[in-house]
């Protein structure tokens, strides 16, 4: 009886392995990619003022005055106040070391930056020039973006799925098979990459000319990738 029992279990195990192998052989695993290109409709600009003075109270007053002028001048362009905010504020003591290794006090430095969200790409140059003409002496970064990210990401995922399906159908046809279903779907990512320009430089007030700074937004891409297990007959 024990011998018959063992043989029965061996038979069941072999059948299970055969069924598992047969199921695995009916799967085609493919990956798909989708990329959607579009024009940005939003930009985030960071401008600021770096002030230096040996008198702490004077430098604080100067930084506050210039920052207020920048904020008011940007708002006067029609940009909503909620889209204008302080990005960074830093107050520090500045010093250097002389030839004898002695630390020499140079004064104080305040870095005060303003972040501006612009929903009209056409006026980016005007926003930058306005900030510079009202006391800003640094342009830290300019990043383009899009407001409706969700639909852009969904479009990229749709293209990635279609790409995976096309690959699977081609592979199945070459094997003399047909796709009969989907076993598993994994969406890996749907990210947006946009041009970003970063540059920090001290500028003189006289450096601002009479011409508006030309800004080309270019395009941004949204990419998505998927992995799909297709069932074949």
Describe the structure.
The structure is a single chain. It contains four helices and eight strands, in the order αββαββαβαβββ. The protein is an alpha+beta fold and 233 residues long. It has a domain at 40-146: Protein of unknown function (DUF541), domain 2 (Alpha-Beta Plaits). It has a five-stranded antiparallel β-sheet. The protein has a three-stranded antiparallel β-sheet with strand order 1-8-6. Strand 3 (84-97) and strand 4 form a beta hairpin. The longest helix has 26 residues, at 149-174. It is elongated, with a radius of gyration of 31 Å. Mean pLDDT is 82; it is low at 2-22 and 200-208.
What's this entry about, in short?
By secondary structure, the protein is α+β, with helices and mostly antiparallel strands. It is built from 4 helices and 8 strands, in the order αββαββαβαβββ.
What structural keywords apply?
Alpha-Beta Plaits, alpha+beta, about 230 residues
Secondary-structure element order, as H and E?
HEEHEEHEHEEE
> Multimeric state of these chains?
single chain
**What's the CATH class label of one domain?**
Alpha Beta
Which segments are poorly predicted (pLDDT under 50) over 5 or more consecutive residues? 2-22, 200-208
């Amino acid at each position: 009886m024990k011998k018959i029992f063992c043989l029965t279990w061996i038979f069941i195990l072999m059948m299970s392995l055969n069924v598992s192998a047969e199921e695995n052989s009916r799967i085609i695993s493919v990956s798909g990619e989708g990329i959607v290109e579009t024009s940005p409709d939003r930009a985030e600009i960071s401008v600021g003022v770096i002030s230096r003075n040996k008198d702490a109270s004077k430098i604080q007053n100067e930084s506050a005055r210039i920052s207020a002028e920048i904020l008011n001048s940007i708002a006067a362009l029609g940009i909503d106040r909620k889209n204008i905010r302080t990005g960074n504020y830093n107050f520090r003591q500045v010093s250097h070391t002389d030839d004898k290794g002695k630390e020499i006090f140079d004064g104080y430095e305040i870095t005060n930056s303003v972040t501006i969200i612009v929903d009209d790409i056409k006026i980016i140059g005007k926003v930058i020039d306005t900030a510079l003409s009202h006391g800003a002496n640094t342009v830290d970064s300019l990043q383009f973006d899009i407001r409706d990210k969700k639909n852009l990401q969904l479009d990229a995922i749709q293209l990635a799925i279609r790409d995976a399906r096309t690959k699977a159908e081609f592979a199945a046809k070459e094997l003399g098979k047909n796709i009969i279903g989907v076993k598993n779907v994994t969406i890996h990512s749907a990210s947006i990459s946009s041009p970003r320009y970063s540059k920090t430089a001290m500028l003189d007030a006289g450096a601002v000319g009479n011409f508006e700074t030309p800004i080309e937004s270019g395009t941004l891409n949204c990419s998505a990738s998927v992995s799909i297990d297709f069932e074949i007959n």
